Amino acid sequence: MKKQELVQFHSLLVLLGQEYVRRGAATRADFEPYRELGVTPMSLQASRADHEEAVTTLAHILASLSVSDATRESTVAFD
Q1: pLDDT, tens digit, for every residue of 32-67?
Q2: To pair with 43 at 20 to 30 A between CA atoms, which of 26, 49, 53, 71?
Q3: What is the pTM of this model?
Q4: Residue 78 counted as domain residue
Q5: Is residue 79 part of a domain?
Q6: What does the DSSP assignment read for the chain?
Q7: What is the CATH number of the domain that holds 27?
Q8: Does some domain include residue 20?
Q9: How many CB atoms lie within 10 A of CB 39?
């Protein structure tokens, strides 16, 4: 993936994370490992490798939140 595509994907994942927080499926604290990297989609001077690490970290956080949210929903659905 080219750097430009990676930055665009990074932006989309950030929007998804914001939506998780807005809906109450996550808190800002859940994204602390991502924020500690200090690389955002607007960090255009950051290297491709830095964006790749940020995207990977963010994707793992979102995936773990999705699994825990799905587990919560399935538990509620069967109560």
Answers
A1: 999 999 999 999 899 999 999 999 999 999 999 998
A2: 26
A3: 0.82
A4: no
A5: no
A6: --HHHHHHHHHHHHHHHHHHHHHTS--GGGGHHHHHHT--TT-TTS-HHHHHHHHHHHHHHHHHHHHHHHHHHHHHHT-
A7: 1.20.1270.110
A8: yes
A9: 22
